[in-house]
Amino acid sequence: MAAAEAAVPSSSLKTDTAPVPETAGTAAAMATTPSAMAAAATVAAAARTGSEARVSKAALATKLLSLSGVFAVHKPKGPTSAELLNRLKEKLLAEAGMPSPEWTKRKKQTLKIGHGGTLDSAARGVLVVGIGRGTKMLTSMLSGSKRYTAIGELGKATDTLDSTGKVTEEKPYDKITQEDIEGILQKFTGNIMQVPPLYSALKKDGQRLSTLMKRGEVVEAKPARPVTVYSISLQKFQPPFFTLDVECGGGFYIRSLVSDIGKELSSCANVLELTRTKQGPFTLEEHALPEDKWTIDDIAQSLEHCSSLLPAELALKKSKPEESNEQVLSCEYITLNETKGEDDCFRDRVSLCHLGRNTVVRSQLTATLNSCAPMILLPHPSK
Q1: Parallel, antiparallel, or unpaired: how do β-strands 124-131 and 346-354 relate?
Q2: Cβ neighbours for 270, distance < 8 A, ≥ 6 positions apart
Q3: Of the listed 16, 120, 174, 245, which one is catalytic?
Q4: Residue 205 a catalytic site member
Q5: What pLDDT, in 10s, does the model give residues 281-309?
Q6: In angstroms, how far is CA 29 from the centroid of its own chain?
Q7: DSSP secondary structure letters along 100-139
Q8: Residue 362: how many CB atoms within 10 A of its CB?
Q9: Distance between CA atoms of 290 and 76, rounded to whole angstroms?
Q10: Nearest one of 132, 136, 135 to 352, comparing CA atoms
């Protein structure tokens, strides 16, 4: 009996603990749970990354608007000074991020960028740029001293006075010596009168002479005007080419100088290569930023470095965004308007709309960011 009684519980235990078959729904749920969780984690991470990127762009836009001062860039051969300025502007705006449509337009702020003197498209070298309140200093850059290295070619004259134009005259040069060139340079030193080229940025009835010439219109030469040459020296002479080092004041044309030298030697000449090595205190080797350095951070560092080069009366204090009831968080809308002032001082205005301490708009933005990435919090502007 004891054996029989023991057998019954044993049999009963086996029956009660038999495994329950899994249903198809249970198995599917168990199989998909890990992948669903992974997908959710991926979406959340992407949302956080996107939100962080938006906040980062907002900070860059704020920093861009705060830049103010004068710096220098390296202009290569090819683009005009205005085209290069537009390229710089586009790179800065792209780095700061294009506007997002969900951000409400608020008060406008203007980012001003201009250059301190046209450099021919065929020339390379230092181009001084003003940003923010630094654009007000560009007039002094236009009238300040500049230094050039020019390679002239004897025996050929062109309509543009450089190698980009059509040859209009050819004369012999084989009897010209190095001493001949050095002997006449004194005539082009000091305060002299110079006739500017027909192909130039000077204007007639509001239009550039070079534009009128390209249209085939008849353009009269501008009268000679006073200019200053501080120093000029012959660096190299290998006929028909000669290399000059020239330091001059504002409004001086190297192309006219080389052409006049050719005439003075009873021949003719044009500019083959032209490099601006210095403008004011900015030099090509030390201060001109190459294009791969055209970033908000690099320009901010350059502004800090170059501020010590400027005269005390022109030095700018570190600027802050203009005080108002609204503090910049990010740009929302961008329009580009270029105005041309005298002496080719281009001041490109970039209108940037921003939102700031508007409680309603800020609350909507915070809710949008937090719905995508709960871990991302929008900092209060006052912090």
Answers
A1: unpaired
A2: 152, 153, 156, 157, 158, 160, 161, 162, 163, 165, 255, 258, 259, 262
A3: 120
A4: no
A5: 999 999 999 999 999 999 999 999 998 88
A6: 56
A7: PTTSPP--EEEEEEEESS---TT-EEEEEEEEGGGGGGHH
A8: 17
A9: 9
A10: 132
